[in-house]
Automatic annotation (TrEMBL):
This is Aminotransferase. Keywords: Aminotransferase, Pyridoxal phosphate, Transferase. Its EC number is 2.6.1.-. Its cofactor is pyridoxal 5'-phosphate. One of its GO terms (biological process) is amino acid metabolic process. Pfam families: Aminotran_1_2. One of its GO terms (molecular function) is pyridoxal phosphate binding. The keyword Nucleus does not apply.
Length: 390
């Protein structure tokens, strides 16, 4: 008996660049101190007021089956949030609540791609993108966004692969690069989608972590509302990673089909978690700013330290909680640098190669530890790079 090709081919064989992360975790499990600058996990917990709201909801009885599309109150809160930020009319009929942004990505691709369709995505990419596309039976095709262009994707590169493709997945503010796509970039992407009749899936889970420029949802651009599915989440904006609560915003007819999909897969999200999310959104930007403030500080720390040396180059940290650092002057690959740094200083980073080929020769640093430890670790990293380049 054999398992399905769909499940066994979610990820290709061989190293995907995540070996450094797994090795760092094994070292920690063995009792060795390791400074982790790897994954996008906040160093602060979910705010106590949100947990209190969840607790009150759970003890109040909201522990049974919740409405599969999401509670009406939460769908309304998400719709209000999106409309106020983008200016695009949005109602609960445009919203499906999902078990986190990852489930939303899977559902969005299920909605627009058939078996064998080509689904485009931008490289560098969030780790699960190609596997998500394979998981729904489509064929992933990476479109490189190069460091020389600030990791902004170019229409000319998308157009090379757009003929016959079904969808395009973008992410701004971007993980792993920290790039925020400009209005010009997004308009080029929109024009390309219209020209080649592509669905656009826009991953906007970092929309509250914006340090430079403006966050523009492509759904707000002319002729794009009817062909755009927006993925959102409470994970990054409210430090609710473990709560697994996100959403899709899309035309109402697509949402109706996605509700049918949810009925046959996730069967909704726990009601008390939804009530906690509704409370959190009701706190407005003040709570979001409190959650994002540590990363704004560490961005300034990063830029200050980078300015004091000339070996490691930093891509503009325009958004999100990461710094993408160019270490090619050391003569090492991103994977080689990350492994050596872990071996010699017990500091774990992510090789750029973990996120595709366009960030080869880079490492991604997650700004997710306290300011003092982060400053010390980054100084050590830069000194290590200078030694390697000597």
């Amino acid at each position: 008996m054999k398992l399905s090709k769909r499940i066994t081919h979610l990820t290709p064989g061989g190293s995907d660049g995540w070996d450094v992360f797994y090795r760092a975790r094994a070292m920690k499990s063995a009792g060795q101190p390791v400074i982790e600058l790897t994954i996008g996990e906040h160093d602060i917990p979910t705010h106590p007021s949100i947990l209190d709201a969840m607790h009150a909801s759970a003890t109040g009885g909201h522990t049974g089956y919740a409405a599969v599309p999401g509670t009406q109150a939460l769908r309304q809160a998400v719709a209000n949030r999106i409309q106020s930020r983008t200016g695009v009319p949005t109602t609960p009929a445009n919203i499906l609540i999902t078990p986190g942004g990852q489930a939303a990505l899977f559902a969005a691709h299920t909605a627009v791609c058939d078996e064998g369709d080509v689904a485009l995505y931008i490289d560098p990419f969030y780790a699960t993108y190609p596997g998500t596309i394979r998981g729904i039976g489509a064929t992933p095709q990476a479109i490189p966004a190069y460091p020389d262009h600030g990791f902004q994707p170019r229409a000319v590169d998308i157009a090379k692969h757009a003929k016959g493709a079904k969808s395009l997945l973008i992410n701004t503010p971007n993980n792993p690069t920290g790039a925020v796509y400009s209005r010009a970039t997004l308009q080029e992407i929109a024009d390309t989608c219209v020209e080649h009749d592509l669905w656009l899936i826009s991953d906007e889970v970092y929309d509250t972590q914006l340090w430079e420029g403006d966050h523009i949802s492509p759904r707000a651009l002319p002729d794009m509302a009817e062909r755009t599915l927006v993925v959102g989440s409470m994970s990054k904006s409210h430090a609710m990673t473990g709560s697994r609560i996100g959403w899709i915003c899309a035309p109402s007819d697509i949402i109706e089909h996605l509700i049918n999909l949810a009925t046959h897969t996730t069967y909704g999200v726990a009601g008390y978690i939804q009530d906690g999310a509704e409370f959190a959104l009701g706190e407005g930007v003040a709570l979001e700013d409190e959650v994002s403030a540590p990363f704004a500080r560490r961005r300034l720390i990063t830029e200050s330290l980078l300015a004091k040396q000339n070996i490691v180059k930093g891509s503009p940290i325009q958004g999100a909680m990461y710094a993408m650092l160019d270490i090619r002057a050391t003569g090492l690959t991103g994977e080689g640098f990350a492994n050596d740094l872990l071996n010699t200083h017990s500091i774990a980073t992510m090789p750029g190669e973990s996120f595709g080929i366009a960030a080869a020769g880079h490492i991604r640093v997650a700004m997710t530890i306290d300011d003092d430890t982060y400053t010390s670790a980054l100084k050590t990293l830069l000194d290590f790079a200078a030694l390697k380049a000597a």
